[in-house]
């Protein structure tokens, strides 16, 4: 999205090309690792001997745990197996270009050292050391961008409390204590920027009724003032639903990118930066009874589908309380990495498809008057022939990306037909590079 409307709204009118400069690496990256890690990994979906329904990081809410009881978890949290270098390597080898880790989730517990509270990993746990800075250094050593998630909703902070119906979510802000909480939040964010210098601040928990649009704009403006190159998502204002803050480009706070709550058209949302975050199973934070793991083929198809519509894929892992990424996650990351080593060219630096194809997805890379369409064949044709519209482009040559073998291209003004090997290759070998020109 051109950040200009948001910049103007936030009082920091930056020329659109500055916003484009800021977003350039993010648009090229296309694929990142989400990490949900915190005290909730200790109960791992179970409380007082009872399995709790729902996502693991919400256990304080789902089991309705009083703050003083939940605080006991900190005494157990000692991730002695935490190996930030191994985590960064796993992301790198999966073909991911950035890492977004929870610095503070809804339970208010901080994985970084903060002067604002003792409810952090340094003061409250036997581990006693900052967790984020080592990961930021490990990510940079692997050439990855380090980014942090931060929840506005905070079930631990005394200024926020339960709603009238007794639920933490959506939490309320106590009478006359909103300014106090915003000051707390701003100080923590300044500490985060100072200690681990994230490239993206990924906000969440922006839905409680007390959080209003002007506060979103204020927060955006505050952060823009601290770090002009910082990328901020749209979960700071109320723009999340359908990304109205982005796709309609209104003067409300818009943020640099959003997470769509609706289907994205096959040819993407022109001028809008968006990211789809997903789990590999059915929880963000670790649950000991993880099940419903998605197959690697599904995860790769998600990546391809999202990139074909001009979006980024932020794929989650939920480490254990001991500090280990679950083996089932590592296995999928390694397999995705194999696919990316062969086909990464069809994802990185691509933009939304100019055409809709029924038998797969298409990503595009432009280079002046030339360029390439990357055709991801999901349904290999039995008769060995694939046809699709040219979208105003001219077809040149075609090859299998995996081994460069030439494919026959027959084209008219409006469409092209490829003749393929009858035998469908493995998914890892089923991406076709169609060179095109615009004149
Ligand atoms: O409530 C959170 C949830 O725990 C998780 O962090 C997801 C990730 O996008 N965000 C919120 C639900 O939308």
UniProtKB/TrEMBL annotation:
Residues annotated as site: May be important for catalysis: 277
The organism's place on the tree of life at top rank: Bacteria
Keywords of the record: Glycosidase, Hydrolase, Signal
A Pfam family annotated for this UniProt entry: Alpha_L_fucos
One CC-aspect GO term: lysosome
Keyword check for Signal: yes
Primary role: Alpha-L-fucosidase is responsible for hydrolyzing the alpha-1,6-linked fucose joined to the reducing-end N-acetylglucosamine of the carbohydrate moieties of glycoproteins.
Family of this protein: Belongs to the glycosyl hydrolase 29 family.
Protein name, as recorded: alpha-L-fucosidase
């Amino acid at each position: 999205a051109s950040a200009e409307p948001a910049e103007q709204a936030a009082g920091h009118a930056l020329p659109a090309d500055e916003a484009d400069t800021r977003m350039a690496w993010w648009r090229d990256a296309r694929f990142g690792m989400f990490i949900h890690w915190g005290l909730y990994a200790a109960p791992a979906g179970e409380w007082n001997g009872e399995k709790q329904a729902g996502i693991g990081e919400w256990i304080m809410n789902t089991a309705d745990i009083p703050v003083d009881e939940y605080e006991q978890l900190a005494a157990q949290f000692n991730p002695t197996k935490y190996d930030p270098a191994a985590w960064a390597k796993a992301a790198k080898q999966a073909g991911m270009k950035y890492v977004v880790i929870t610095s503070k989730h809804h339970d208010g517990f901080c994985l970084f050292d903060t002067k604002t509270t003792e409810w952090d990993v340094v003061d409250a746990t036997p581990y006693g050391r900052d967790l984020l800075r080592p990961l930021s250094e490990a990510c940079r050593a692997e050439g990855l961008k380090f980014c942090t998630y931060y929840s506005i909703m905070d079930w631990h902070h005394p200024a926020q409390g339960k709603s009238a119906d007794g639920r933490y979510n959506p939490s309320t802000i106590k009478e006359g204590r909103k300014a106090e909480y915003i000051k707390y939040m701003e100080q923590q964010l300044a500490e985060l920027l100072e200690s681990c210098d994230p490239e993206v601040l990924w906000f969440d928990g922006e839905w409680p009724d007390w959080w209003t649009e002007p506060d979103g704009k204020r927060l955006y403006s505050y952060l823009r003032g601290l770090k002009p190159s910082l990328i901020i998502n749209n979960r700071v204002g109320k723009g999340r639903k359908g990304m109205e803050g982005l796709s309609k480009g209104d003067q409300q706070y818009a943020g640099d990118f959003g997470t769509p709550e609706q289907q994205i058209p096959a040819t993407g949302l022109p001028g809008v930066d968006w990211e789809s975050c997903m789990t590999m199973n059915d929880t963000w934070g670790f649950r000991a009874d993880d099940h419903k793991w998605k197959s690697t083929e599904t995860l790769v198809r998600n990546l391809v589908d999202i990139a074909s519509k001009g979006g980024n894929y932020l794929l989650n892992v939920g480490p254990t309380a001991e500090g280990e990424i679950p083996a089932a996650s590592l296995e999928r990351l390694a397999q995705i990495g194999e696919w990316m080593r062969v086909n990464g060219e069809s994802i990185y630096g691509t933009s939304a498809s100019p055409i809709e194809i029924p038998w797969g997805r298409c990503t595009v890379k432009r280079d002046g008057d030339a360029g390439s369409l990357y055709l991801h064949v999901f349904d290999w044709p039995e008769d060995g022939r694939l046809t699709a519209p040219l979208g105003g482009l001219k077809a040149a040559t075609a090859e299998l990306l995996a081994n460069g073998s030439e494919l026959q291209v027959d084209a008219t003004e409006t469409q092209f037909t490829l003749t393929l090997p009858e035998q469908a290759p493995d998914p890892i070998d089923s991406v076709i590079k169609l060179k095109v020109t615009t004149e």
